[in-house]
Structures are given as C-alpha cells and as structure tokens.
Write a structure and sequence with these properties.
Helix 3 crosses helix 4. This protein has nine helices and seven strands, in the order H-H-H-E-H-E-H-E-E-H-E-H-H-H-E-E. With 217 residues, the protein is an alpha/beta fold. The protein has a single domain, classed as 3-Layer(aba) Sandwich (Rossmann fold). Strands 3-2-1-4-5-7-6 form a seven-stranded mixed beta sheet, with helices on both faces.
Length: 217
C-alpha cells in the first residue's frame, strides 16, 4: 500500500494539512534536542521530511539515518536528500545496536506499527541514556466543534481526496484506533522512557509526545 502511494504522498500531505505538516515536523525535531555532530534515527521515515529536519539540527558533522519498510517511500527520500542515509528496516526489529543514536523520532508512522509498544521499545533501545524519543502523530479531538469537523474531514473528505487508492480509507481508521494522548503517554512509559510529556497543537488534532531514555539499570 505505501509503495503504491509513494508518488502522491507529499502532495496529499500538503493538501490534507494545508501545508502545516512541515511546521509540525519542525516542532518534533526541536523536541529531539539534537546538537551539531549528533546522530539521529527517523523510523518509518516515509519520504524523509522529518529526517531532513533532523539533519538541519545535527549539521554537516552529524548523521541522520531514515528507515522504512517501504522501498517506494525510500526511493522518494533518496531523491530528496541523497546525502542522508536511507535504509530498509522493520520498526519492530531495528537492525541497530543499543545506544547507537542520540535521538529517535517517528512522524505519522507509529500508528502503522503492528505492535505499537514493541516498536516504541525498539526506538528506546537504540537511543543512548539521556537521549530523546519523539512521536508525532494525528490524534482524535474529543470536544466539538473540532471533533465534528475532524469526523467530517477524515470520514468523508479524505477518502474522496484519495479515491484513487484505498490507502486513504485506511488513514481515518488507523487514526481512530490509535491511542489518545494520555494512553500513548502510558505506553511510552512502559516502553522504557522517563519524563514523558506531550503537546497538543492544531486545535488538538496533532500530538507531539517525547520522553527521555534513562540510565540503563
């Protein structure tokens, strides 16, 4: 499915979010607290926009690796930023050693993990003690009028925009079954993070969760 939509993925993101997804990725990259020379991993990187944001934080002396299980998405990412490292990887079994990165992020990809806590544990495992894990994801607002608009947008309009492919029917259902901000915070804590916090933006439609990897016991 993700290979099929790779060619229109960026355009659809911009249409569905009025271009605001770039700003949300900037905020996620800020929460990763990277410094020049650091090493970062972006899991489920898609076409690479969040990884590219991370690369601006680490500079020429750092390294950013974007991983995904869709070769179609990775092909697009390689065209955008050939200087970065792009690798196929299963988010539930990341092929990297413990403590290999200063931060790990996932932007709009955690809801596609078949085992959410396992994927978040893997992200935590590959980040050094003191480093950050950041999750940027769509969430469902609970209060009207935004909840009413959200339901109309995701249940009616998004599938129409993507009527050429059933991937855009999958999108609303994946958002609905994804944990809300507080339950996701609990899952991140169970995955091994401390000082877990989250920020809601875009009227409560977007959640940015972040936590810190503790010293290994």
């Amino acid at each position: 499915m993700f290979d099929r939509i790779a060619g229109v993925y960026d355009v659809m993101n911009s249409v569905m979010t009025a271009g605001l997804h770039h700003r949300w990725r900037e905020r996620a990259a800020d929460l990763a607290e990277l410094r020049p020379g650091d090493r970062a991993l972006d899991v489920a990187t898609g076409t690479g926009d969040l990884a590219i944001e991370l690369s601006r934080r680490v500079g020429s002396g750092g390294e950013v690796l974007g991983s995904d299980f869709s070769e179609g998405m990775l092909d697009r990412a390689r065209r955008k930023a050939p200087a970065l490292s792009w690798e196929w990887a299963d988010a539930l079994r990341l092929p990297y050693p413990d403590d290999a990165f200063d931060a790990a992020t996932v932007g709009f990809g955690a809801r596609n993990f078949s085992e959410l806590e396992t994927g978040l544990r893997e992200m935590t495992r590959v980040v050094r003690p003191g480093g950050k894990v950041v999750v940027l994801e769509i969430t469902t607002p609970a209060e009207p009028p935004l909840s009413t608009f959200f339901g109309l947008w995701f249940d009616r309009i998004v599938p129409l925009l993507g009527r050429f492919d059933d991937a855009y029917t999958y999108l609303p259902s994946s958002v609905k079954r994804f944990p809300g901000p507080e339950p996701l915070g609990g899952i991140l804590t169970r995955a091994g993070l401390t000082d877990v916090r989250w920020v809601l933006t875009a009227g409560g439609i977007i959640a940015l969760h972040h936590g810190r990897v503790p010293e290994r016991g």
